[in-house]
């Protein structure tokens, strides 16, 4: 793939702005190789869930909190959804994938309650993970006094995990936060990148049994992007934070749009389910064609053409300084507008 697509995402040097999002697809070695050959910049492995990390911590002699014991007791209900049977198997997967692939392998953790996150994050780094994605999933509102308490608990967990590793930490957030632009600024002290947005199964009610049901589906090829506005808001408010677009990026036009909106990379998953790993190459070829049409030599040229509005020359200057800093260093700086 042409070097003009080289980019940075939160400290990772990537050969392209397409990252394969977390899914069971990346469990297969041949599929990962196809993704790499098609031009993927990195691959996110399927998620390991907090109950699995709690079980690993308990097996390694750490005392569990009352909350963690409660989660572990309920884990039998979730086992059939796990891509990896246990944490040790996941470490083996990370080790093998990172040793066989020429692109970064990103480990994925789902949750934030587990007190063993710090120890296990260090194990993931030692196994070869190029970065760690924390897919934040908080408990129901009744367990907290306020939304501020939820956010503070998450921020504390992220800072703790980040302090235990030297590889980049990316935080994957859902869209149901009060203000993602403000969260982005707070996350600068603990995360090197944000993924917008994390998706969750849709809750449904079965009218035959009167029971709750969770339904998961891949994004349709004809669905519109729903993250452009949020990407632009977060990026304009906190340009020092590296962003990944997630959800609905399935063709070259959508890839180009999220990059123009403020994303450094795009997470692609549903399109690979629908069309196979070759869709990555098709998307990148379309991006190159767009860049050639507009006489852009590198992705930085594209980024400097983002359609952001500024109320003063000072804001524009601050934006360029922040963008240049994190592209050069690969890590967020404290500069923001």
UniProtKB/TrEMBL annotation:
Molecular functions per Gene Ontology: dihydroorotate dehydrogenase activity
Residue ranges of coiled coil: none
GO biological process, one term: 'de novo' UMP biosynthetic process
UniProt keyword list: Flavoprotein, FMN, Pyrimidine biosynthesis
Keyword Signal: no
Entry keyword Lipid metabolism: no
Protein name: Dihydroorotate dehydrogenase
Species assigned in the record: Rhodopirellula bahusiensis
């Amino acid at each position: 793939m042409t070097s003009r697509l080289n980019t940075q995402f939160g400290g990772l040097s990537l050969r392209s702005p397409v990252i394969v999002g977390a899914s069971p697809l990346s469990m297969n070695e041949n599929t990962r190789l196809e993704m790499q050959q098609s031009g993927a910049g990195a691959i996110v492995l399927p998620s390991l869930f907090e109950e699995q990390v709690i079980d690993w911590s308990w097996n390694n002699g750490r005392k569990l909190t009352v909350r963690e014991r409660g989660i572990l007791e309920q884990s039998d209900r979730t086992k059939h959804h796990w891509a990896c049977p246990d944490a040790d198997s996941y470490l083996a997967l990370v080790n093998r994938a990172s040793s066989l692939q020429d692109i970064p392998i990103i480990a994925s953790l789902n949750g934030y309650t587990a007190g063993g996150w710090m120890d296990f994050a260090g194990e993931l780094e030692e196994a070869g993970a190029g970065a760690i994605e924390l897919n934040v999933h908080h408990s129901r509102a009744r367990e907290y006094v306020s939304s501020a308490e939820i956010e503070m608990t998450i921020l504390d967990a992220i800072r703790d995990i980040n302090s235990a590793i030297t590889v980049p930490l990316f935080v994957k957030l859902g869209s149901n936060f009060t203000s993602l632009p403000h969260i982005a600024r707070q996350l600068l002290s603990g995360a090197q990148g944000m993924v917008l947005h994390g998706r969750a199964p849709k809750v449904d009610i079965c009218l035959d049994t009167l029971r709750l049901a969770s339904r998961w589906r891949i994004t349709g090829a004809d669905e519109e992007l729903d993250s452009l506005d949020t990407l632009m808001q977060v990026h304009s408010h906190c340009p020092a934070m590296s962003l990944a677009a997630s959800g609905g990026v399935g063709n070259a036009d959508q890839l180009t749009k999220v990059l123009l909106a403020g994303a450094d990379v795009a997470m692609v998953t549903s399109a690979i389910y629908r069309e196979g790993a070759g869709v990555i190459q098709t998307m990148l070829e379309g991006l190159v064609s767009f860049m050639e049409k507009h006489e852009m030599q590198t992705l930085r040229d594209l980024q400097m053409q983002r359609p952001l509005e500024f109320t003063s020359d000072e804001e524009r200057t601050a934006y360029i300084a922040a963008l240049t800093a994190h592209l050069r260093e690969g890590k967020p700086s404290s500069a923001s507008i």
